Every structure is written in structure tokens, then in C-alpha cells.
Amino acid sequence: MKSITDNPNNGQGNFDDMINDLIKNFIEKLLKGELTEFLNYDKYDSAGKNSGNSRNGNYSRNFQTKYGVIEKLEVPRDRNNDFQTALFEPYKRRDDWLEQTVIQMYARGLSTRDIANLIEQMYGQKYSATSVSNLTDIAVKEIEQWKNRPLEKRYSVLFIDALSIKIRREHVGNESAYIIIGINEEGYREILDFYIGVTESAALWEEVLMNLKSRGVEQVLLGVMDGLPGLTDSFLKVYPKADVQRCVVHKVRNTLHKVKKKHTDEIVTDLKKIYKAPSIEFAEQALNDFSSKWDKLYPRLAQSWFEDKDELFTFYKYPDSIRKSIYTTNWIERANKEIRKRLKTMNSLPNEKAAEKILYLKILDYNSKWSERRLKGFLAARDKLIQLFEERY
């Protein structure tokens, strides 16, 4: 007897047919089992007499799967027409593999037009860019539920940051996507929420944070943020018992913008002595040394660091094992950079809904990856963080 692979021309076709037949038989058995459970008696069982309902033959339908089209799938029905299988919705002609594939391609940067052309090339099925966009609207339906989901009561750290995105309204313009990331006591991070606003402002951040609190985030130890005017006050209005950590790396960058190029490397070395010191005492001494060394050339630089010192040195109050994770928003910016790369493929987004779809799909991807990765140092700091929660709340 010849193997189905013996014929190089027909082997793949025979194999696909065999897979289709197996899937068809499997689905039909499942459907029969579902109907038996629905009616609560086996076929030909006397318990079905005078039960008020009974089997009523089958109807045929074609059903498309990722393995091909299953023709003449036999779907059982009952006499009262009450039975509905859980395998697919009424009148649905395929499983949801196509929708999921489209959503994944869209999330990874293909345009709706590219996806439509790709589907037609692969499956011979005509899809317009509008049809593809409608499929990705599955994400839109989920966004509202996601943005209203209950959140944990405690987060050791909240990182708040915004990135610029281009949206076409009457004209193409830069708008801000507000993103909040939480790290719980165990050291697992999660993007808690996002919001699209015309411009980044402290007042809008306060509104976003209030919404977060209404969804259950009541206790926070530390907020990490950049130097947006008014942002510290807005954060502390919502979480008055929390500390604020100003992003040290942002501060370093702003400092370097104000110095001559020939001094850049030396100033970077001196600044590292400040924020990489083993303790706050050594950091303060390094800042004094920096001031003494550079005051004549750049009198405003050291003064600026002294003015912001309380928020720049907050991380020294926390366990050494997590300090590298909390003195900067840099690793969040790396995530934002990936989101920007995805947005760049579209130049500008046609509306806010399109922007939300892309952000949401990327966020789900991040949260899935992060749910299995504890941030370094948080396990060692856990007892101290719990103690800080108990002292403050």
C-alpha cells in the first residue's frame, strides 16, 4: 500500500484532505454530544418519550477553519429549534482564526491594506481595508472593559509617562498618550491604564490618577515621573502618603543640554558619582563636590540639582536591591520606543479610535510578557516594602 506522500504532486493535497476529514469527524461528534447533553437523554433512549423535545435530523453547512473549508458539516438540530452549539455562533461560517490572525498582524505593524492583500493572496478570499479595520474593532469592544477592570489595592511603585503620537483630526497634530505602569509588592509590572489627550498636562494626569484610584488602587509607596511642571502636586493630591521620585536620567539629559561638548564626558562621570553613590550621605557629598568643581563655569547647574535634590534622592530611602529600577523611567521609555516604532509605520493615525486599538494591542502583549518576569531586586526588598505599607497606611 502506497503512502500518501509517495506521489509528490498529490501528497500534500491528500494530506490536507485527511486532516480536514479528521477535523470534520471530530466536530460532528462534539456536536452530537452537545445535543445529547442539551436534551438530557441518549439517542433511542426511552427517556426521550414525551419529553417535549427530540432530535430532528441534521442540516449541512460549510465551515472554514485555518486548515481549509470543511464541506457539508452535519449539524444536528432539535424539533423545538432551541439547541445552539457552543462551538460557533448561529450562521457563522468559520471559526475566529482569521479575526485573531488579522488582529495579530495589525498589532505588529501591517496596515489594513497590506493585511487585506495578504489574506487574498494566501486564501483567495477578498477583503477590503475597511473590512480588515472592522475586524480589528474587536479590540475596541474590549478596550472599555479593560479600562474599567478592577485593580489591585497596593502598588509599590507607579511609573507615569507620556509619549507623543500623531493623530489626524482636522489636521495632523501631535497628541499625548498617557501611560501608567504599576509594580506590585512581588515585583511584577503591569500597564494599568492609558489615555489619549491633546497635550500632556498635570491637570489631566490628576484626572487619570483619580480614575485609577476609583478602580481600586488605594495605596502607593512611590511615584516615578519626569519634571513636568505641576505633576508632583497632581500626584500627591491623589496619593498624599506616597513619595515622589524625579527621573534622574531626565535630569542628567537636561543638564547636558546646557554644557559645552568638551565638558560632557567629564560632567557625566561626576553626575554618576551622585546618583550611583552607595548611600544618600555619599550622594550629597558628591553633589557638593560637583558644585565646587563646576560652579564657576556653570553656576546654574549645581543650583538646579540642589533645588530638585529631595525628589532626585528619594530612591535612597528604598532598599538597595531596587534602586536601579526606581530612579529612572528609562525602562518604560524602552517600552514606549517599541510602541512608537509600531505607530511610525502609519505616519499618522486616522482617529483616536485607531490609536487606542494599537496602544491596547501592544499593551496586552507587554502585560502578557511581564506577568511572568519579576523585576530584579523586588523579591529581596519585599519585606521592607510591606513594612513601609504598614507604616504609611
From TrEMBL:
Alphabetical UniProt keywords: DNA recombination, DNA-binding, Transposable element, Transposition
UniProt xrefs under InterPro entries: Transposase_mutator
GO molecular-function terms, A-Z: DNA binding; transposase activity
Signal peptide: none
GO biological process: DNA transposition
Family matches, as PROSITE patterns: TRANSPOSASE_MUTATOR
Record Pfam families: Transposase_mut (PF00872)
Similarity remark: Belongs to the transposase mutator family.
Function description: Required for the transposition of the insertion element.
Designated name of the protein: Mutator family transposase
Taxonomic path: Bacteria, Bacillati, Bacillota, Clostridia, Halanaerobiales
